[in-house]
Structures are given as structure tokens and as C-alpha cells.
């Protein structure tokens, strides 16, 4: 019997089966910010912090969804090859942008205060970045996509009422409209940002 | 004339730079705030934006950095004093928006802070438990009355604005700002144009000093800094007009259809 249990356990591990369980969006956000805070307060280089923050973002943000959203109506006009290229570039851009923004903070303390369930797909988790002597308190709301309760994903950060997803979308739209809707111009911009 | 222009510019710097709002390209009674706000003069706006960035780099940011090196109590006292002065514009706008209760609270706040708080340098009202202070201006009042923002514009020195918010700023120098009236037109030996200009300039430097890192971070992580500032400015004004500090979900996700489409792909 004991042998059987061990065999099953080994099989499960080898088959990489994950035991999933529903996680509340507020707990998910608090655990995400705790992970980020822990990284930011570590005594490691900025580059190492950025690298670790990128893996947090990969686990917790719906990067593909945010990428599609940021593209606006242009997403309907892309070929499959262009879509693939876009996602490759967008992921690099997003991870660099996301982690660079956060890496400026040292040991930030974020406290989850509550949540508003909008519908079965979305919950807004309300939090504050606690004030320090250098900066005032900052309200940060997280738009969490909860369609799969076992795997909630962040789709937007709303800082003091300002949506980062919307800002990013309007930035992309501006680049496209300045270049007569040429997607290659956006590709070049994303590429340049990631390389610099 | 030059003095008036200088005053107008400095004045707007504080109120426009502190962030104003937007909508559909026409200064008409708004039917739908959620419409896109047109950037009718984008080429000119971008040129002005570059000019403002240069000015910021050479003059405003260095001044803000020097200001940051002052002792904390001086900075805090200045922040409080300029906030207290802004109440002189907030109170009439509370009334114009029909919010008499807040106007009374803000009047009491102004009285307490100006007297016990030593000309507003100490926020006594806050320590006494007054509700959180929210600035109001004439642009916000026009928005609350249903006036659409008109085109987005970038003003030299003053920064982002809209036709509506710029029009609102003019109300200040046309009698809507008691501090301006007393300083410029008042027969008072203690107040002068110079003091008014200095107070407005100080307010701008204070704002810039409190946002040095935020702007640096935003610029470093934007692929189109102009578009980022435009987006953030217009979102902020929408929130302020609706008195929604955490953002209005309906406004933030006005194109919710995008997400639905993405989810169904």
C-alpha cells in the first residue's frame, strides 16, 4: 500500500500535475505584492531585482490579454505571423517596462484594503501603497480577471484612478496613427525600447 | 499687459499643471463624456510639449530639485500654504456645483488653517479630523455642468489642458479668484502682484518637486511620452469632474467590448 502511494506521488510529480485550488482575488494580489516587496527589499543588484520581478509578472499578469487590448482594433488586421511577432516583442517590452517601474521602489509596503466583485469575470482589489517620509500614500487598484478562479490574472493597475492599460493602449494608438497605421513602426518602437 | 500675461501664465501653470480634463472636440453641452477627446492640433501640441520639456529641463526641474533640498518642515509648510490658498478657488466652485455642504466645510477649513494654522502653513483642520480636501476649479465646474472638454491642447509653459479647462482658467483672472483680486486689485499695503506671482510660482515648483521621480519613471518607461501624459491628464480630469478619486470603472473601461472580444477569441 505504502509503495503504491509513493508510486502515485512520483507519477504525479513526473507528470507535472498541479493541484489547483480557487484563490480569492484579494489574497492573490496580496501574495503577489508580498512577492514583489520581498524581491525589492533584497540586497541584490537592480538587474537581479528586475529579473526576479519579470518572473512574478509572467506568473500573475495576463500579458497576452493586455497585449491584445493595447493593440486596439489593429489586432483584427494582423496576419498570424504578425501576431506572433507582436507578442514576442510585446512580452519583452511589457516585462521590461513593468519591472523597471517597480524596481525604483525599495521595500514598498502595499496593503490590500478590500475588493469589489464587478461580475464573474472581474474583481477590483483595492490597495494602498503606504506613505513614507518621501512620498504620500498612493491608491492602487488591481483589475483581476477571475474567469478561471484557480488562476486569477491581473489585467490592469489603476493608480490614483489612472489606468495603466488604458494609457498603454493610447500610447500604442498614437504611434500607429503617427505612422499611418503601419504595424512595423510599432514593432520597431517596441524593439528599440527593449534593447535600450 | 506683460504683467497680466505673466500672471496668467504662472496662474495656469499651477492649476493647469496640476492636471486638467477632456472630450469630443466641441465645446458643447456634453452628452457622453466617454467619447474620445480629439487632439486637434497634435503637431503643434507635440512641438509645444518638446518646448516645455526643454524649459523643464533647464529651469523648472533644477528649481524643483533645489526646493527639495530645503528642510522638510519648510517644504511641508509651503505645500500646506499653497493648498490653503487654492481653497479660495475651491469654495466658489463647490457652490457653483451645488455642493454647499463641502463649501461650508472648506470655508471652516480655510478659517482654521489661515488663523490657527499660521497663514495655512500648518494643516490644523486635517489634524482636527476634517474630511479630506479635494481641489475644485472652474474647468471642473464647467465639466460638472455638462460642458464638453473640446480639443486637447498643450499650452506653452502651462502644459496639458483642454479648451474647456483653459476657458475655466480665465475665470480666475476675471474675478473668480479672491487671492488674485486682493493681490492685484486690492488696496492693501501687504499684498501685491509680486506676491501673487511668487505664490503661484511656488505652487508650481512645489508640485514639480513632489513629482520628480514619478515623471522620470514615466518618461523612462514610455514609448511615447507625449501620448502617456495626454492620456493620464485626460483620465485625471475625468475623475476629478466626477469626483471619483479611484477612477470611474465605466470611464476606465469604456471599451469593454475589446476585452469581451479578446476573451472570446
Question: Can you describe this structure?
Answer:
- The complex is a heterodimer of chains A (196) and B (265).
- With 196 residues, chain A is an alpha+beta fold.
- Chain A has a single domain (20-195), classed as Roll (Nuclear Transport Factor 2, Chain: A).
- In chain A, 54% of the residues lie in helices and 17% in strands.
- Chain A has helices at residues 2-14, 25-41, 46-60, 63-71, 80-103, 164-178, 183-195, and strands at residues 110-117, 122-129, 138-145, 153-159, 162-163.
- In chain A, helix 4 packs across helix 6 and helix 5 (80-103) runs parallel beside helix 7.
- Chain B has 265 residues and is mainly α.
- Chain B has one domain (2-12, 41-263).
- Chain B is 65% helix and 3% strand.
- In chain B, strands 1-2 form a two-stranded antiparallel sheet.
- In chain B, a hairpin with a 3-residue loop joins strand 1 and strand 2.
- The longest helix of chain B has 27 residues, at 42-68.
- Chain B starts with a helix and ends with a helix.
- In chain B, 40% of the residues are buried.
- Mean pLDDT of chain B is 84; it is low at 4-34.
- Classes of the chains: A alpha+beta (196), B mainly alpha (265).
- The A-B interface holds A 65, 68-69, 72, 75, 93, 97, 100-101, 104, 118, 121, 124, 126, 133, 135-136, 139, 141, 147, 155-156, 158, 160-163, 166-167, 170-175, 189-190, 193 and B 72, 210, 213, 217, 220-224, 226-228, 230-232, 235-236, 239, 244-249, 252-253, 258-259, 262-263, 265.
Question: What are the SSEs and their pairings?
Answer:
The complex is a heterodimer of chains A (196) and B (265).
Chain A: H1 2-14, H2 25-41, H3 46-60, H4 63-71, H5 80-103, E1 110-117, E2 122-129, E3 138-145, E4 153-159, E5 162-163, H6 164-178, H7 183-195
Antiparallel strand pairs in A: 1-2, 2-3, 3-4, 4-5
Helix pairs in contact in A: 2-3, 3-5, 4-6, 5-7
Chain B: H1 2-17, H2 42-68, H3 72-96, H4 100-115, H5 124-127, H6 138-144, E1 152-155, E2 159-162, H7 163-176, H8 178-185, H9 193-209, H10 212-220, H11 225-241, H12 249-252, H13 256-263
Antiparallel strand pairs in B: 1-2
Helix pairs in contact in B: 1-7, 1-9, 2-9, 3-4, 3-9, 6-7, 8-9
Amino acid at each position: 500500500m505504502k509503495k503504491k502511494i509513493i508510486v502515485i506521488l512520483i507519477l504525479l510529480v513526473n507528470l507535472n500535475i498541479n493541484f489547483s485550488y480557487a484563490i480569492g482575488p484579494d489574497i492573490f494580489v496580496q501574495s503577489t505584492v508580498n512577492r514583489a516587496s520581498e524581491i525589492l527589499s533584497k540586497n541584490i543588484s537592480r538587474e537581479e531585482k528586475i529579473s526576479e520581478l519579470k518572473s512574478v509578472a509572467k506568473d500573475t499578469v495576463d500579458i497576452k490579454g493586455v497585449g491584445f487590448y493595447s493593440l486596439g482594433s489593429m489586432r483584427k488586421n494582423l496576419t498570424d505571423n504578425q501576431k506572433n511577432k507582436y507578442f514576442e516583442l510585446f512580452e519583452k517590452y511589457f516585462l521590461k517596462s513593468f519591472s523597471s517601474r517597480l524596481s525604483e521602489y525599495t521595500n514598498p509596503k502595499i496593503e490590500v484594503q478590500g475588493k469589489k466583485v464587478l461580475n464573474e469575470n472581474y474583481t477590483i482589489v483595492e490597495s494602498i501603497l503606504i506613505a513614507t517620509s518621501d512620498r504620500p500614500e498612493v491608491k492602487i487598484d488591481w483589475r483581476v480577471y477571475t474567469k478561471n478562479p484557480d488562476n486569477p490574472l491581473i489585467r490592469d493597475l489603476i493608480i490614483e484612478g489612472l489606468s495603466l492599460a488604458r494609457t498603454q493602449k493610447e500610447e500604442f494608438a498614437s504611434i500607429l496613427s503617427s505612422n499611418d497605421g503601419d504595424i512595423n513602426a510599432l514593432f520597431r518602437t517596441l524593439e528599440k525600447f527593449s534593447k535600450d | 499687459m506683460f504683467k497680466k500675461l505673466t500672471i496668467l501664465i504662472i496662474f495656469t501653470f499651477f492649476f493647469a499643471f496640476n492636471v486638467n480634463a477632456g472630450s469630443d472636440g466641441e465645446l458643447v453641452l456634453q452628452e457622453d463624456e466617454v467619447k474620445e477627446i480629439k487632439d486637434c492640433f497634435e503637431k503643434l501640441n507635440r512641438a509645444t510639449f518638446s518646448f516645455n520639456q526643454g524649459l523643464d529641463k533647464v529651469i523648472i526641474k533644477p528649481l524643483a530639485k533645489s526646493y527639495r533640498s530645503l528642510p522638510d518642515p519648510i517644504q511641508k509648510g509651503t505645500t500646506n500654504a499653497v493648498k490653503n490658498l487654492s481653497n479660495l478657488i475651491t469654495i466658489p466652485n463647490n457652490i457653483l456645483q451645488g455642493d454647499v455642504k463641502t463649501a461650508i466645510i472648506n470655508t471652516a477649513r480655510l478659517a482654521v488653517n489661515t488663523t490657527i494654522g499660521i497663514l495655512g502653513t500648518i494643516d490644523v483642520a486635517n489634524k482636527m479630523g476634517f474630511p479630506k480636501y479635494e481641489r475644485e476649479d472652474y474647468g471642473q465646474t464647467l465639466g460638472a455642468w455638462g460642458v464638453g472638454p473640446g480639443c486637447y491642447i498643450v499650452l506653452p509653459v502651462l502644459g496639458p489642458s483642454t479648451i474647456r479647462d483653459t476657458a475655466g482658467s480665465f475665470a480666475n483672472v476675471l474675478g473668480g479668484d479672491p487671492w488674485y483680486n486682493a493681490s492685484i486689485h486690492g488696496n492693501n499695503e501687504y499684498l501685491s502682484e509680486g506676491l501673487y506671482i511668487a505664490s503661484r510660482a511656488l505652487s508650481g515648483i512645489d508640485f514639480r518637486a513632489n513629482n520628480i521621480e514619478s515623471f522620470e519613471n514615466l518618461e523612462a518607461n514610455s514609448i511615447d511620452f507625449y501620448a502617456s501624459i495626454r492620456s493620464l491628464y485626460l483620465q485625471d480630469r475625468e475623475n476629478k469632474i466626477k469626483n471619483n478619486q479611484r477612477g470611474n470603472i465605466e470611464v476606465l473601461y469604456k471599451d469593454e467590448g475589446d476585452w469581451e472580444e479578446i476573451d472570446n477569441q
